[in-house]
Amino acid sequence: MSATSERHIVVLTGAGISKESGLDTFRDADGIWAKVRLEDVATPEAFARDPVAVHAFYNARRSRLAGGGVHPNAAHEALARLAGEWPGRVLVVTQNIDDLHEKAGSRNLVHMHGELLKVRCAACQRVFPRTSDLGVGDACGDCAATGTLRPHVVWFGEMPMEMERIYDALSACALFMSVGTSGNVYPAAGFVEHVGLSGDAHTVELNLEPSVGASLFAETVYGPATEVVPAYVDRILEQGW
Ligand code: APR
Questions:
Q1: For the residues of 4-55, what is the DSSP string, one character each?
Q2: Annotated catalytic residue: which of 113, 152, 194, 202?
């Protein structure tokens, strides 16, 4: 067993952590994929076929997030507190494209599925902050190409971001926490198995209900994120796991 200061934590988060901040999940009964087909808005093929529809989908979500009415909740805040108080490293890997972890104060953070408040030029690859709507005729502020700006998000069929950094952290962690994710989407859904293969790290799922991969975790805690995450963080800061 390594010393406490060398015991690193990786936290994977999904849409469930932002649900109590007012943002919809994807696969719950009232979730985003119950209202719109992901094949129509979240693939490169959809964007090539109908960029107006894809922009409309992300513009609506972006304006809601940028509008000032969406705030981090007690679960985001607890994870930021964990990073501040835990003597080892804490890396938060989020599948969420909202900015609630950073608003809560998390700094060691990977947005593996990208960020809603950024756009990218498909021609020059420059990434720009963006809070306003994006249109098909907009010009890149760097290379001046038109029609090349796209949401800086990872669509189905594309490679998630910063995977090497994530796998390095997973291989070195002593605790892997999975929060608010249904376990349907790879590679994130496979992180718990990667942790299991590379050592004796403890694994815990904190979710409203058992995820698809619940049986792969050594410990499971079920309830709303704003209740179970602060309580779990308190526990590990007091006595470890
Ligand atoms: N507290 C904790 N968990 C919750 C809460 C809550 N208040 N509300 C819902 N959940 C749980 C649900 O029970 C579900 O297991 O959060 C999970 C959300 O699952 P999904 O909607 O599938 O979201 P996620 O796992 O983040 O999806 C992964 O799929 O479509 C893509 O790119 C999208 O990043 C997303 C990826």
A1: GGG-EEEEEE-GGGGGGGT---SSSTTSHHHHS-HHHHSSHHHHHH-HHHHH
A2: 113
Which element (helix H / strand E) includes 174? strand 173-179
Residue 179 Cα, ligand 1 centroid: separation in angstroms? 9
113 carries an active-site annotation: yes
> Residue 196: its pLDDT value, please?
87
pTM of the model: 0.97
Nearest C-alpha to atom 30 of ligand 1 is from which residue?
26
Centroid of ligand 1 to alpha carbon of 25 (angstroms): 5
Average pLDDT over residues 107-115: 98
Residue 217 confidence (pLDDT) = 97
Chain-centre distance for alpha carbon 142: 28
State the pLDDT at residue 5: 52
